[in-house]
Amino acid sequence: MLSYLSNRLVDFLLDNNIIKKEEKEIYVYGYQIIIASLISILLVSVFGLVFHRFFESIVFLVIFIYTRQCSGGYHAKTFLSCSVLFLSLYMLLLLFVEIFQNEIDIYQIICILLIYLLTIIKYAPLQNENKILSQQTIIVNRRKSIVISVVWILLALGLFPWFRRFSIVITLTLGMIAMLMLIEKLRKEGQA
């Protein structure tokens, strides 16, 4: 389905002389990423509405997407497995928040946030073999990763006394990002 839609869009661009024929594969791949991402975002939003957790879903999406753009991390081999992993992480997040909302204390929050921050400081940004970064982009993404991490951490800690649920959503989302980064780092080391 992704391939079909992407090819149709690119064929339209080709027919109207908007892009060059030799750019077709790049555009098809780009549109596949965009469509797969939009589907995942839409599904998370719909699940958020269905489970009456729309605001938690928005917090998850903003933090996960924005942070991963700068920090990198594990990348699935196919769009389907990427979407399944993304939705599974989201559902796992909702489940953990429901079960442990009243059990998690500030010390556990701090522990998860410290692990996340140390992972960012040590490894960000992790590169993807499909998107090699220039040295300048690596420096910029590293700085962005650290700055945005400090913002998320301060937000999670600041919200904890009054909006515990949102603090936990932020913290667990950051914990998942750290986990995905560590998985990717271990995967790359296993290939070396």
Tally of distinct domains: 1
Radius of gyration: 18 Å
Total strands: 0
- How far the N terminus sits from the C terminus, by CA atoms, comes to 35 Å
The share of residues in helices is over 70%
**Average residue-wise pLDDT:** 92
The helix tally amounts to 7
Beta-strand content: under 5%
- Parts with pLDDT < 50 across at least 5 consecutive residues: none
Structural shape: globular
Gist?
This protein is mainly α. It is built from seven helices and no strands.
Could you explain how this protein is built, in words?
The protein has 7 helices and no strands. It is mostly helical and 192 residues long. It has one domain (51-191).
List the helices and strands and how they pair.
Elements: H1 2-15, H2 24-50, H3 54-71, H4 79-100, H5 106-123, H6 135-159, H7 164-191
Descriptive labels:
192 residues; mainly alpha
